[in-house]
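Marked as duplicate of an earlier ticket. Keeping the data here for the record.
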Amino acid sequence: MEALSEIMASGWLAKIVFVLCSLGAVGGAGYLFFTKNILYGAYGLLVSLMSVGGLFLLAGAEFIGVSQIMIYVGGVLVLILFGIMLSANSKDALKVVNVNSLLSILIGAAIFASLLVLIIGLQTNRPQTYDSSEQQINGLGMHLMTSHVAILEIVGVLLLVVLIGASFISKKKAA
């Protein structure tokens, strides 16, 4: 990861990558919001989640970025796609009709404006160097696998229940 931080320290490349990841995150979320097809919306969510993972990597939070990609893209999004493909019997089942589009646009604009006000007023004292030692990640992994192992098992059981539920619903609709 030191080579990545050296390349990003050059300045212009980091700005280009940041703009591309930001456009991907906002564009994917916008596409997800305005699409009428659930499957295409899942693809928009894929682009948005991958771009957010890229932003985490760019910010120097490698563990969170890789976790974002592995958990949300590799786990949750695959389960959503699996549920969509199992439960959709016809092309009409994938269509979404939004009856409150004006209200949802107003709520989204209000949330965006409030977040923009918070971001503009934010003052940070960012350190110039990052401590990306392997011991921090090692300690986090040991902590997760010793004192918080029950949470990891509960998440695994939850994902299994979602898979079983999706297959049960699809079997019920097919019959």
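See parent ticket for discussion. The chain has two domains: 1-121, 133-175.
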